[in-house]
Design a protein that fits this description.
Strand content: 15-25%
Order of helices and strands: EHHEEEHEHEEEEEHEHEEHEHHEHEHEH
Oligomer: single chain
Shape: elongated
Largest sheet: 6 strands, mixed
Radius of gyration: 32 Å
Distance between the termini: 54 Å
Number of domains: 3
Helix content: 25-40%
CATH topology of the largest domain: Rossmann fold
């Protein structure tokens, strides 16, 4: 959170303050009615005491803001991931002009911070507070339980006047939106098996030499300085040196977004786990089917953590389609895009609900490549439809696993790998 001076104060009378104000008004009114000046003076004094308490609170809050104008929030890690604890540090620091003795102000200050229930698991935030003359630092843990974007902050300062007649809960700073990635299961140990061992594509070579191991045919626009002249002369065709990840078999993950919340989160988590694990084995991957936010091009062409973060960022705002028909239309479009834009040797993994005839017709050409796997999600009410979908995809060349919502993603993945080994 950037330094800020935004303050929103909310004051309320305590029971003592209410009693003081009520008694002051009543006694003052009786004094007027009975023509008793002493009662009028007492009533006015009691009422003024409440007013003075309010003035004191306003001046105190103003003095605090001038002395401590900076509130800085640090969230680690960022973005957060479902099921992975995080932490927040909020530092309220004095300005340079007001640094010096001031432990009394900091010592009286009670501060806590607000956080969305999706970030804390529904529990209240319990902060460890560190005080110094010039700063107050809060540290507390986050336990994200739901994918999405959720607010942290603002910090709340709790204060009272010296006579205990007024309480103030002052929002200091602003709320900050935090992204939460879906839960990711580590599948790297078996992802390479599903992707196959073709980490390098050697063009037109039956027994390539060591020099040819990272070569490919020249394409229009390639840098001429990367031409390998010796190999080009041997082959009689222009060959260029590929970069470190050239030739790594790409993958496409087709994601069908269900209507139910539990099914939606499971499907997104499964797609994210597969996509991230494929990336971490060194293969580029794209995500299709989840609307305009998904990647139509392959991520990870150059490897690195950036592609992982980019893929997971695509999942943060995913929501269920308005209707099942809209979801089917989106899925059909994704299947056609996967078939038409496939790169040679590409592996396709689809996570879908029981599908319509139109969807299955669009997915059939992908199965003909022999490198297509499907996870069909089945619940009690659609188990028969799921089996029909699995049978039709199997006839089209897909290897299919029918699973229920909540199934262990690692077990599902191992079943897909086993299908490859049996092929």
């Amino acid at each position: 959170m950037k330094p800020t001076t935004t303050v929103n104060a909310s004051m309320s009378l305590t029971s003592r303050g209410v009693g003081m104000l009520a008694c002051g008004i009543v006694i003052g009114a009786l004094g007027v009615g009975l023509s008793t000046p002493v009662m009028v003076y007492v009533g006015v004094a009691m009422t003024c005491a409440v007013v003075l308490a309010w003035v004191w609170m306003m001046l105190a809050l103003g003095a605090f803001v001038r002395r401590f104008p900076h509130a800085e929030r640090t969230i680690r890690p960022r973005p957060l991931t479902v099921g992975v604890p995080g932490s927040v540090t909020v530092a309220i620091r004095a300005s340079r002009a007001h640094r010096g003795p001031g432990r009394g102000v900091i010592g009286r200050l009670q501060v806590r911070e607000q956080a969305a229930a999706e970030l804390t698991g529904g529990a209240a935030t319990r902060a460890a507070v560190t005080r110094s003359p010039d700063a107050l630092v809060l540290e507390y843990a986050l336990h994200p339980v739901r994918r999405g974007r959720w607010d942290v902050g603002p910090a709340l300062m709790h204060a009272a006047d010296p006579f205990g007649m007024l309480l103030s809960d002052t929002a200091f700073g602003t709320a900050e939106s935090v992204s939460v990635w879906p839960q990711v299961t580590d599948l790297v140990g078996t992802a390479g098996a599903l992707m196959g061992q073709a980490d390098r594509v050697v063009v037109r070579a039956r027994t390539p030499s060591t020099d040819d191991a990272a070569l490919r045919e020249y394409r229009e626009g390639d840098d001429l300085r990367r031409i390998h002249w010796a190999s080009s002369a041997r082959r009689g065709a222009m060959l260029v040196r590929s970069d470190e990840h050239a030739g790594r078999r790409p993958a496409t993950v087709i994601l069908d977004l269900p209507l139910g919340h539990e099914a939606l989160e499971w499907s997104i988590s499964a797609a994210a786990s597969i996509g991230v694990s494929v990336l971490e084995t060194g293969h580029p991957v794209r995500l299709l089917g989840a609307g305009p936010a998904t990647a139509a091009t392959h991520l990870g062409q150059r490897g690195g953590d950036l592609a992982r973060a980019e893929l997971l960022d695509l999942t943060v705002d995913l929501t269920s389609p308005v209707t099942r028909a809209a979801g089917d239309a989106r899925l059909s479009e994704a299947a056609r895009a996967a078939a038409e834009g496939a790169i040679e040797g590409e592996v396709t993994v689809a996570i879908i609900d029981p599908a319509t005839d139109d969807v299955l017709d669009a997915m059939a050409p992908i199965g003909a490549t022999g490198r297509a796997w499907a996870i069909v999600r089945a619940d009690t009410h659609n188990a028969d439809d799921a089996e029909i979908t699995a049978t039709r995809l199997g006839r089209a060349g897909w290897r299919v696993s029918v699973v229920s919502t909540g199934a262990d993603i690692a077990e599902v993945w191992r079943s897909l790998v086993a299908m490859q080994e049996q092929a």
